[in-house]
Amino acid sequence: MKALYFDRTLKPVNIPVPERKPGEALIRVLYAGICQTDIEITKGYMKFKGIPGHEFVGIVEESEKQNLTGKRVVGEINIGCGKCPYCLNNDPRHCRDRTVLGIHNKDGTFAEFITLPENNLFNVPENISDKEAVFTEPLAASLEIVEQIKISPCNNVAILGDGKLGLLISQVIKLHCPDMMLYGLNKKKLDVAEKLGIPVSIWNGKEKEKYDIVVECSGSPEGLHNSLNIVKPRGTIVLKSTYNTEPKIDVSKIVVNEITIVGSRCGRFEPAIRLLESKLINVNSIIDRIFDLGEGVNAFRYINDQSPLKILLKVNET
Asked: Is the CATH code 3.40.50.720 the one for domain 144-263?
């Protein structure tokens, strides 16, 4: 099968189709999404070696469950051990021995075929297109914020970062709180957000202690520093960014202003699928360009050169 393989550099390869283990499904990938984590992996994040990619929609080719074979699916990316307290509490996302699709000890979705545990898979409703379905994982991550903290209409919220995740998070937050602002540096991306009804502003660093809640999804090590400047005393900062460097922050400001900092990673797929099905948010406007899998290396070059919104890889025909 064709795939993109990363080992210090990203390159196209031809390798055998992965073998399905008991309890797993073999999935033919239709589309895969490139996210900021994938970009960071190519810079050394997680010291990953293998096939990257974790956002996908595909068709189940082989499965022990007859109700899955031939179905269009998306999949939860964390694979737990099944035995630890986290897994037994239905939270494999924090299993200490977990593997993570395309991120940690598990080949990912930039390939024609992948394997995943059958229990990780979710059927895609008919009214969700293939391209929309690819957004299930990042939308689930966006919805995790409103499961972790209470956001009410009386709050004011800032989102730092005008990338694809920032535009998803902004749409989710707007469903809960009208008094919000998306900050960014890229006017083209902010224009897309504005057309989606999101209040936007070019970041200038002049705002001080203005917001009850700040969501940091800029992907920049400076993001936490900026968040600390604009959050109110006793406010909350939600961190969504991961990067291959260590940020420098004034810890004293966290203590003196009694700031709550919340790390936020993956979320549950069921609410994300329901939200995509409802059409209450628009993910198609976030897609910048679609590359074939064979053009995957060029897709990463395009991202590094142009800093676009969402890039998808078309892997197989439906």
From this structure: yes
